[in-house]
Amino acid sequence: MPIVSVQDVTKTYASGFQALKGVNLEIDEGEILALLGPNGAGKTTLISSICGITRPSSGRILVGGHDVVTQYRQARRLIGLVPQELNLEPFAPVGPGVAFSRGLFGLRRDPARVEAVLRQLSLWEKRNARMRELSGGMKRRVLIAKALAHEPRVLFLDEPTAGVDVELRRDMWKVVAELKRQGVTIILTTHYIEEAEAIADRIGVIADGQILLVEEKAQLMARMGRKNLSVHLREPVAAIPAALAGYELELCNGGRTLIYSYDTKSDGTGITRLLSDLQAAGLSLRDLETRQSSLEDIFVDLVKERP
Ligand SMILES: Nc1ncnc2c1ncn2[C@@H]1O[C@H](COP(=O)(O)OP(=O)(O)OP(=O)(O)O)[C@@H](O)[C@H]1O
Ligand SMILES: [Mg+2]
After folding, report:
1. Average pLDDT for consecutive 10-residue bins of the chain (307 residues)?
2. Can you give the residue ranges of the ABC transporter domain (predicted)?
3. Does the CB atom of residue 252 touch ligand 1 within 6 A?
4. Domain definitions of the chain by residue range
5. Residue 222's pLDDT is what?
6. Bridge-partner residues for 67, per DSSP?
């Protein structure tokens, strides 16, 4: 049974704006799912719906088998949420704040657990500091500590590394990897494709309130094992010569460039043959260039190709 199950969920805000247009998503226990999508795609709306903060207009969401609307308390107990907006009391002290978050779920005091969480997030030295004395990155880590205080099984991180420097971003990735080792299921949203590439087991792409793709990262990567060879010609041609009809070619740049797409993992790329066939067809080359397609290309294509 998936730990999170989102079934035909739509969300229309009071303004009449439809932010989710029939979302289906199943998340397995222990996985890291990265949701990629442009601003306004509906990522925060989806997460808020799963966490029971926003009420879906239709459809159903289960967390650990509990309906997030009719069994809110049972579902919410399993969830840790690090919201996109920093919402911390400026004068609240770090350590007691984390202990307090735990208490909100009706759990007994557990200083050892709170210490472990603070240490894991490198906040132990700052346990007596007040929020306003912390840097932005530390504040973000305090939010994670608060979200982990009640030992949730599913952790939602909404843009955990937005506006965070490279070093801290990598620290955050380590924290996520460590939580995964402990068996926590993690769903994070991000604009950073390299972040999804670095830490996710599965990647979902969402745009305009719809999930466009959810796929194992490894499979996506395999699809990305394609390269483009651009052949720049000395003289422009009006059309691809008939002799080259057997190749997967595209003519662009006013007939000056031929683009050949090939699979880097197949036995032969076909480049040698293509080049001699080009010559046989009477074309002379000015330059050659190859480019690896990336997750970014797939993402951009997906998001722009929609009607
Ligand atoms: N309370 C609200 N009332 C009306 N419209 C809203 C509300 N909250 C969000 N929206 C709209 O719903 C759409 C999706 O917003 P959402 O915050 O879910 O996007 P997002 O993918 O998280 O974007 P970002 O990457 O900028 O965080 C946007 O067009 C937004 O303006
Ligand atoms: Mg958002």
Report:
1. 97 97 97 93 96 96 97 95 83 88 87 92 93 87 91 93 81 90 94 86 94 89 77 94 90 94 81 92 93 72 65
2. 4-233
3. no
4. 4-222, 225-305
5. 72
6. 62
Q: Does the 4-222 domain belong in CATH 3.40.50.300? A: yes
Beta bridge partners of 230: 259, 289
For a pocket test of ligand 1, which of 9, 13, 20, 51 has the largest count of ligand atoms closer than 8 A to its C-beta?
13
pLDDT at position 160: 86
Ligand 1 geometric centre to CA of 43 (Å): 8
Return the ligand 1 atom nearest residue 54 CA. Answer: 1
Classified by CATH at the fold level, domain 225-305 comes out as Alpha-Beta Plaits (3.30.70)
Atom 2 (ligand 1): residue with closest C-alpha? 13
Q: Return left, alpha or beta for 254; rule: phi > 0 is left, psi -120 to 50 is alpha, else beta.
A: left
Ligand 1, atom 11, lies closest to the CA of: 19
Confirm or reject: Cβ of 55 under 6 Å from ligand 1. no
- Do residues 72 and 105 make contact, with C-beta atoms less than 8 angstroms apart? no
